[in-house]
Amino acid sequence: MNLELLRADITSLKVDAMVNESAPSTLPVGQATVTSGGNLLCKFVIHAAVPRAGEDNGHGKLRAAMLSALERAEELAISSVGIPLMGSQALPLEEIATVMIQAALDFRSRARSLQRVVFCLFGAQAYDIFERLLRELAE
Q1: Helices (H), the chain
Q2: Which residue of 2, 30, 93, 101 has the fewest CB atoms within a 10 Å radius of its CB?
Q3: Confidence band (pLDDT; 50, 70, 90) for 22?
Q4: What is the DSSP letter of 56?
């Protein structure tokens, strides 16, 4: 499973599924569910409930949301998924990047159909942090 970075609007990605940060009121934090992609370029949208500001164990809940989203992608037997920056209300950017990248790296051994995970980052600051941490953590 390859991890990629792209600086773009996630709705412009041509991937099988994209992850959408979901409000915890619709799902338990750390869980993910799937809907149709509708008019988007993807077939599916994976809704992942992420921690909000002030919640305990933000790192663990963000990690659980990432892993749950990747598991849903694997259950769909798709080959590519786009993931935006998630959990920005709960944690600092560098911590978010570390948790998201490490969760994806840890999931690699379980991936069968999933071949490509694209972290889609809109701003330069987020992209630069993810780029640096991906190099460091993937070594």
Answers
A1: 58-75, 93-107, 124-138
A2: 2
A3: confident
A4: T
Contact 113, 71 (CB under 8 A): no
Which residues sit opposite 49 in a β-bridge? 22
Hey, what domains does the chain have and what are their CATH numbers? 2-138 (3.40.220.10)
pLDDT greater at residue 34 or residue 39: 34
Mean pLDDT of 30-43: 89
Q: CA 91 to CA 125: how far, in whole Å?
A: 15
E-only strand ranges, 37-134: 44-49, 80-84, 116-121
- Cα–Cα distance measured from residue 65 to residue 28, given in angstroms and rounded to the nearest whole number: 10
Which secondary-structure segment (H or E) carries 126? helix 124-138
| Residue 34, helix vs strand vs coil | strand
Distance between alpha carbon 57 and the CA centroid of its chain, in Å? Answer: 18
